[in-house]
Every structure is written in structure tokens, then in C-alpha cells.
Amino acid sequence: MQTINQEVIFEALRNALGEKIVDHRMQHGELTITIDAIDFLVVSRLLRDDSALRFDTLMDLCGIDYSTFGDELSTKYRLRGRRFAVIYHLLSVEKNQRLRVRVLAEDNELPTVDSVTDIWPVANWFEREAFDLYGIIFAGHPDLRRILTDYGFIGNPFRKDFPITGYVEMRYDADQKRVVYQPVTIDPREITPHVIREEFYGDRES
Questions:
Q1: Predicted TM-score of the model (pTM)
Q2: CATH for 6-152, among 3.30.1330.30, 3.30.460.80, 3.40.50.970, 3.40.47.10?
């Protein structure tokens, strides 16, 4: 199967999506387009169904927190003050082509993106993972609940402002004969790794 040229795919994307493409760039050998969350449900159907695109397979999706990106990178990637995004990795089996889609959530306090479980059913557990770890809401998801952390877990551990040690720790209490939560007993600290500079690499005395 012959891979379709990236320029050809982008031209097809531009014809199908028009101004809904906020940004586009080549990253790690793959085309990446950026879409606003308000447009994503319409865009995702076009990506799957348009005869020139046919991105029929969702390979993966993940959340991302851009809060530590800084002004320079935020401007470079045209984030426009958006803190959270969802990254989708799509595959067109027919065109033998991959596409990365960055969807920017509108609200930094309650980031929300439409669920695509009706379009790519495999998104179900991926969306639950992003909800669990980043607190991103997927509107229309059939069963949006935590999937990796405990049901009583508080917070979203992949957010940049979540402490490395967490807020509570869990242990089994022999007297109560059940698992209990208690404040973290590990003192928060920063660990600075030993760094060997490039000019000393391989030097046993360094």
C-alpha cells in the first residue's frame, strides 16, 4: 500500500475543514493539526467519513497540561491561553496515512471536549483515562468515571500543579480491618540528579 503524500493529505484536510484548522505543523514526521473543542465533533466526523481522508481508526488519545509551557512556546503553538488539550492519533487504513489532532479545551477551570465514542468506539477507555488523570470532561461519554485511580481519589495526578507525593496515602488498618486513608507521611522534597557533562562522558574519574 502506497503512503499518500503529506502535502496531498493537508490539501484534503484544508478543503474539508477550512478555517476550523487553527494551526498545522509537521512534528516527528507526522502532520499535526490544531482544532478548537467547539468544532471537534463536526471535524471528527469529517475526518472519518470524508472520502479524501478516511481516518477510520483512532490509535490513541491522551490529555496534556500546558500550564508550564511559558509564553514563547504558548505563542509558537498558538495555544491562546488554553491550559488543557486532548491529543488524538488517527490512522487511515485506506490512505496509509497518520494524523495527529490537538484539540484545545475552551475552559481552563472545567476543560470539556465532546466524546467521540460514537465515532471511534475505542475512545471509551482512553477518554476515561484522560478524565481520571487530567480532569478533562468528555461531554456525551456513556460512562465517564475514573479508571486508574481509586474511586475515592481526590484530584488529577497528571496536572502540573498536583504534588508529586499526592495529598493522602493509603494503608491497611489491622484494627479496623479495612483500607484507610491518611495524610502523606513523606516530606516533600526536590531531588537533583547527578549530571555528568558531555565533555566528561565516559571518564571514570568524573
A1: 0.84
A2: 3.30.460.80
